[in-house]
Amino acid sequence: MGRVVGIDLGTTYSLVALHDQTSGRPKCIQGPYGETLCPSIVSVDADGTIVVGEAARRRLLTQPERTIYSVKRLMGRGVADVQDELRIFPFRIDPESQHVIRVRLGERVFTPPEISAFILRELKSWAEEFLDEAVDRAVITVPAYFNDAQRQATRDAGRLAGLEVLRLVNEPTAAALAYGLHEQQRGRVAVYDFGGGTFDISILKLISTTEGDIYQVLSTSGDTHLGGDDIDNLFQSIAHEEIRAAQGLDLAQYPEATQELRKALIRAKHELSSAESATVQLALPTGGEYVREVGRAEFETWIGPIITRTMSPVKQALADAGLSASEMDEVVLVGGSTRVPLVRRTVEEFFGRRPHAELNPDEVVALGAAVQANILETGVKNMLLLDVTPLSLGIETMGGVVAKIIPRNSTVPASAQELFTTGVDNQTGIDIHVLQGERELAKDCRSLARFQLKVPPAAAGMARVEVKFLIDANGILQVGARDLRSGEQRSVEVQPSYGLTDAEIEKMLEESIEYAEQDFSERQLIEARNEGESMLHATEKALAEPQAADLDGNERKRIEAAMAALRAAMASTDYKLVRARVDELNQATMGLAERMMNRALATALEGKRLEEV
Amino acid sequence: MKPGDAKPAATCWNCGAATAGEHFCPACSKIQPLPAGTDYFAFFGLARKLRVDAVDLEKRFHQLSWKLHPDNFAQASGRERELSLERASQLNDAYRTLADPIRRIEYLLARAGLRKEGQQKQQAPPELLEEVFELNESLDELRTARKSDGSNGDLAGLKRRLEAEQGSLQHKLAAVDSQLEGIFHEWDAAMDAGADESSQMKLMTRMNELLNRRSYIRNLVASVRQELAEA
Question: What CATH architecture is A393-500?
Fold first, then answer.
């Protein structure tokens, strides 16, 4: 089996990391540009070629209608959920979208898990290039506040990318793992994770036991639609407004210029993390220029309300953990948006202590994922993560009221059993509606799934079916049912409210083969065989040359044996063996090659004076 | 299986050795399925007592987490992974329930069939009826006064009255909590003395009444607090 990698599938950037066996520490893997950050951007060419990352980012400017960013915002969501984002993000939602959003990119239509799978494939190939071996298993991080559908969508993306997802780990928890390893922290830790598109707060307790360290999450809260993106969007709408006022120009009509502006604004935002002011400059498509100097103070007045929005989840998480801000031993900052000075100040003032930011806030989540990947891969048992479910699980009862069966912040895996019966005579099915959320009414909670329990016709109240709801260590719901009268297990066909069904995934897996890069070892095998082929061809040609006549019998025999061995290896599927045999043939033909080189050189030099050489 | 043990023998799914309901087979160390109806107290190896040492319980929780958590079984067979999921979820459910005194007592009563877990009776306890009646009247007046921007009644006076009511309810709640505390001691003593089922049942019936009273008062406090916050 190949190695298990840790992947941070982020809104704006994604990273892949793994446990480095030499240093004993996790490290992020670099891509072809020497960067560990892969922009979470996907572009589809007219011929169907998929471009991911830095290369796709450039296409945001040249081919915005074929390119998508921030697709994480669409994961596990329905069309009605994303109306607000559509006003700001240039997502082209297919009108055919139903329980899963479909996005148009050029001529093609994709679901968010398919687009995320392209990003995962890219990271998978980075890791494979680095390791020189196939990677087929991963730990992927998700925002702690992701609901069941968003988690399932992430797992589906892994599956579509050819990765077995061994575990979904919550981003702040992963960061705590990386920090714990780094700082040997103990006690109560608050992780404030403000990323590109999501905000999470987790309160953890780090306990040393004789068996090792336990990272126990006490509570978590957040907002899956609050992040640096919101700062960019606000900044952008202010700029659009100013351009409209000054030039009477609606920049939104020009997708390329809009992307150009966004790029300039993001650059200014980054500059404002260290400088007191930054200048935004943009050539307008209708001629003229938009030049705007932004001071830090002005910037902070704009973004103040966004930063304030992070504080109510923080208070909620503390209340749920039964702790106050002053009782925290450490505060850790994670996510690129925590580079904004106002964010740091706000957090420091609230907790009354200077937060940790020693580890690169962009990399720390991926590093933590790699730590967990190593735990699962090697069975190292000196570290244990106990995470929680962020949202209460409930079932709809009479009058559309939700009965909570697993409270939020329960350690996962967690379960609940409920007994169901029939209400009328000869009823053959019992409908069950599962929801997630804190509100009292089903209509205000997130619908997860509906299913029907089949029961044999009998008098009302005779049927007794026990349903077990289980939230696994990934935070994903599993449902099982048992007929208490017959003792039989009942299989439950759960129709996800906002997710892909197994059949849909199977179909996508089939379709994805056309753009799937070949499996790593297959690709290696093809390359090795090609190499072997040309090596054999060259040797045969050399043996037919007149110089080969000088070879003594032993040398010729050695060469022929090496050729036969290479042919045999090429018939197998072991690329490493093929490469070894190529090397051996190379060794065997060394003398022959040298002789031919000399002859070639002699021919080339014929008739030339020495000083011309 | 010990001689004279009336329960059917639990045997290991892997090697067939007797397991006595343990988490792991004593012979081959494989994780075992959970016997139906395993009690949360028994899961932790605790007696069915209501006073629980929080530090000791947490220690047991952590020790069992090391052994049962699905992370330990990532490379194990499908069967073992399934069993770990079952045991680990039971462990977490049991810890969540026993770590909280109210959930603990609700669980005990639910096991005895006296109460559905998490269920709250909305019927006013008779001794509170008069007070509830007055309180509801004050709340109504407050709402009316608020709708008319205070011109219809003395808003500040009403608020003072409600705040006083809230204080008195808080006192009642504290009294219920100390009664519960007392009954915890009674129950544990009865368990130590090997009390028979009928005296256990009597104690549990009293506990159930106290719980109902408690949840009713808590709801009242919550609704008064909400009204005051909106006023």
Answer: Sandwich (2.60)
